[in-house]
Amino acid sequence: MQNLPRHAGTLLMRIRENAPRVHCLTNAVVKELTADGLTAIGAIPSMTENADEMPDFMDVSKALLVNLGTLDPARTEAIKTAVSLMAAAQKPFIIDPVKVEISESRLALAHTLCAQRPAAIRGNAAEIAALAPSAPSAALVTTGADDTIRWGGKSITVHNGDPLMGYVTGTGCLSGGVIAAFLTVEEDRMIAAACAMLVMGVAAEIARPQARGPGTFRAALLDALYSLDTETLIQHGRISQNG
Ligand SMILES: Nc1ncnc2c1ncn2[C@@H]1O[C@H](COP(=O)(O)OP(=O)(O)O)[C@@H](O)[C@H]1O
Ligand SMILES: Cc1ncsc1CCOP(=O)(O)O
Ligand SMILES: [Mg+2]
Fold first, then answer.
1. Residue 2 predicted with pLDDT over 70
2. Ligand 2 atom 13, closest CA
3. How many CB atoms lie within 10 A of CB 178?
4. What is the count of structural domains for the chain?
């Protein structure tokens, strides 16, 4: 795409206008940051993990985030129900396969979920490597110092971000939620994921000068997500593309 930062700004405005509901089945450590970050960009998060409530909540959700950290039997049940409902309704869901390279049961669940065709998978290099072969149609988002989105033989790398993100638990997990929100306003899953990562990375750079360390950075990141605009994305965005 010619002008990805400008497009990211347009999509961010669309999220603020539409206020899409994004359901998050995520790990216990990052629930608050994920809900706060989604709210800051203008989406409406819901977080219940009661499998019985999934039909009602999936009905009103435009996208679903599934994060496999701190997995327990109740959330596993909710995840299976929610993913089946979203797949049947042809609504997007994203998987964050936290530590699947360590846990055999998580890997098995992730493989089952991949068969239902997630729009995207977000993880670090080891997590993505473990799942890439079983999700051929998903946009693969590998985060780290740079974030690379791969899909259909093409790739986009977002160079924005700040090392302080690595000192706040859940910035990677939040990026999965932000991708889910962008999937509600952009049909091209690769562009949606790249714009979401650009928003996260530029927000981190705007937050950095306001922060004295991880604690104040966390608050400043939420402030930056809330106030980010197209001009700032154009000014700060650094991306490269292949294919
Ligand atoms: N050194 C860095 N420089 C810039 N951004 C970083 C750096 N390390 C991590 N990030 C960003 O922090 C977020 C968390 O990424 P990462 O640490 O890869 O996730 P996880 O917590 O799942 O392992 C990502 O959005 C990534 O872009
Ligand atoms: C996101 C995150 N970062 C450190 S622990 C944690 C939650 C993941 O939980 P688990 O250790 O069960 O994978
Ligand atoms: Mg980065």
1. no
2. 69
3. 30
4. 1
